[in-house]
Structure formats: C-alpha cells, structure tokens
Amino acid sequence: MLRDGVTLGLDVLGLLLVAAGVGVAVAALAGTGAGMIVAGVVVLAGRWWADRRNPRVEP
Fold first, then answer.
1. For residue 5, what pLDDT is reported?
2. In the structure, what pLDDT confidence band is assigned to residue 16 with cuts at 50, 70 and 90?
3. Is residue 46, in this structure, part of any structural domain at all?
4. pLDDT beyond 90 at 23
5. What long-range pairs does 50-59 form, CB within 8 A, spacing at least 24?
6. Count: domains in the chain
7. How far is CA 45 from the centre of its chain?
8. Quick one: residue 31, left, alpha or beta (phi over 0 = left, psi -120 to 50 = alpha)?
C-alpha cells in the first residue's frame, strides 16, 4: 500500500517535471501562453495514458 502511494507520487512528480520542461522550451520559442497550453496538454495526455493502462474499477 505504501509502495503504491510512493510510486504514484513519483509518477505524478515526473509527469509534472516533463510538462514544465516542455512548457519552458515552448515558452522560449513561442511565448508564455503557448508554453502554458503545451504544458497543460502534456499533463492531460499523461493522465489519459495512465487511465488507459490501469482503468479504475468502481467499488
């Protein structure tokens, strides 16, 4: 149980760091607004991918 929580936390942190890095790179090229949009899209895509890998089961 604790191991799953730690793994989830690290996965979320990794996704946010990737999104931030991509957002900063795009912001340097195309402006702050575009960087924020791209970072949001990266987070949404990561969440979608995680849900497809491990679908939630309602109790």
1. 84
2. very high
3. yes
4. yes
5. 50/11
6. 1
7. 7
8. left
Give 1-10 pLDDT, tens digit per residue: 788 888 888 9
Query: Is residue 33 in some structural domain?
Result: yes
- Answer yes or no: is pLDDT of 55 > 80: no
| The residue type at 48 | W
In a domain, 12, yes or no: no
Token output for 2: 């604790």
- Report the distance separating Cα 21 and Cα 53, nearest Å: 24
Check: CB of residue 39 under 8 Å from CB of residue 22: yes
> What SS3 class is residue 54?
coil
Reference 36, options 28, 46, 48; nearest CA is 28
Give me the domain span that covers residue 22: 17-50
